[in-house]
Amino acid sequence: MAEEGTILIVDDEQNILSSLRRLFMCHDVDVRTANSAEEALEMLAERPAEFLLCDYKMPDVNGIQLLERVKTLYPDMFRAILSGYVEADTITYAIGRGTAMAYFKKPWTDYDLAGKILHIISTMRHIKDKELLRIFGTIDKLPGIPKIYYEINDAVTAGQSIDRIAGIIKRDTSLTAKVLQIGNSVFYSGKGSATLEQAILMIGLTTIKDMVLMYKISEGLGVSASVEKELAKIFAAGLVLNKAMEHYLVHSGEKYSKEISGTLGILSRVGRIILLIYHPERYYETVNFAEGTECSFDEAERELGYVTDTERVITCSFLDLYNIPFEILEIILYKGQPEKVSPENRLVAAVYSAMSGLLSAIGKGTEITDDKLESFSFGILSTAKLKNTAYIITEVWNIGK
C-alpha cells in the first residue's frame, strides 16, 4: 500500500484525469483513473481503493449512481463527488443519505484539493484503527439506520413544513415522548406546555434529525433500565453543548455551517453511550477518575492508559459506519486540536472544543478563570464571548440539576 493512500479517480474527460493525477506527483500515493463507472467498478473488483473521487456529470451514469453502487459493494471506502455544476439539492441529498461523504467543487485551482484528500485518508485511517475491533466485537449486532431518520432527513432537506415533520414523529410514541420531554426541558422552553410542533421548532431541525438518529440507535443497542439515568445525563450534556455552541456562534458574527455545528453536541456522545452499555466498568472507572481529579473525560482516559480506543475514536468509528459526513468526524476526532481540522471548519472545531472544555469544568464546579478562558480560545476565539457563554452554561446547568 502506498504510504499516503490509494485513490481511484473517475471522470469521462481524459484531460481532467491527467490534471488530477498530477496533483499527487509529489506524494507517495497510488492513483488510478477510470473513464467510466463501468471501468471504475471493474478496477475496484480487481483492487479496492481507500478513496474514490468521481465526477458528477458522466455519459453512462452520474457520479451519485456510481457512489450508491460502491457504497453497497465497498462500504468502508471513502466516497467523494466532484462537480462544477450547480447540483446543490442533489448533492446535499446524497450526503444526507450517506451516499457521498464529501463534495469538492470544480475548478480546484483556488484550493488544495490534494491536501484535502490526503487529510481525509490520514484521518480515516486513524478512525478505522484495528484496535477498535475489540470494542465493536462485543456488540452482537449494530442497529441499522432507522427508517424514520431517513423520512425526517428527507423532509428537512426538502424544506417541508413543521406539521409534516411532526406527523412523521407522531407515528413513534416513544420518540414523540422524548422530543416533548426535551422541548419542555430547561434547555429549551422550560415551561412544560410546548406542543410537539413547538418543541421541534425550539430544538431546531438539524438537532431534531440527529437526536432521532441517536435515540433510535440507542434503543437498538439495547439500553437496560440500570443505565437509563446515566444515559439521560449523557443526552442532557449533549443538548447543553449544542446550545452553548449555538450561543457562541450566533454572537460571533462569523460565517459557519449550521448543518455541522447543530449536530456535534448530540453525535459526539455516541462513544460514551457505547462504553456505558457495553463496557460499563470502564465507563464508570473513567467518570469516577474524572470527578475525583477534576479533569475531563478525555484527560481521565489518558491517565488511565486508554490511548488508541478513546471515546472520541470510538465515536468517529461508529458514526463512520452510519456514513456521517467527514466534516463532523474530523471535528470530533481532533477535539482540543482545531489546528488539525480543515481550515473551513476550524472555527466550529474551536468552538466545539472550547464548549466541551467549559461544560466539563462547569459540571465539576471548577472556577472559570481568565487563564482558563484563554486556554479555551485556541488563539482564535474571543475570551469575552467565551466568558459570556460560560455564564449561560452555568445558569442552564444549575437550573437543570
At a glance:
The chain is of the alpha/beta class and 401 residues long. It has 21 helices and 5 strands.
What does this molecule look like?
- The protein is of the alpha/beta class.
- It has 2 domains: 5-127, Response regulator (Rossmann fold, 3-Layer(aba) Sandwich); 136-400, Hypothetical protein af1432.
- The chain is 60% helix and 7% strand.
- It has helices at 14-22, 37-46, 63-73, 88-96, 113-127, 133-136, 147-157, 162-170, 173-183, 196-203, 205-221, 228-252, 258-267, 270-278, 280-293, 297-303, 311-321, 326-333, 346-363, 370-377, 383-400; strands at 5-10, 29-34, 51-55, 78-83, 102-105.
- It has a 5-stranded parallel β-sheet, sandwiched between helices.
- It is globular and about 60 Å long.
- Keywords: Phosphoprotein.
- The modification 4-aspartylphosphate is found at residue 55.
- Residues 142-338 form the HDOD domain.
List keywords for this structure.
401 residues; alpha/beta; Hypothetical protein af1432; 2 domains; 5-stranded parallel sheet; 5 strands; phosphoprotein
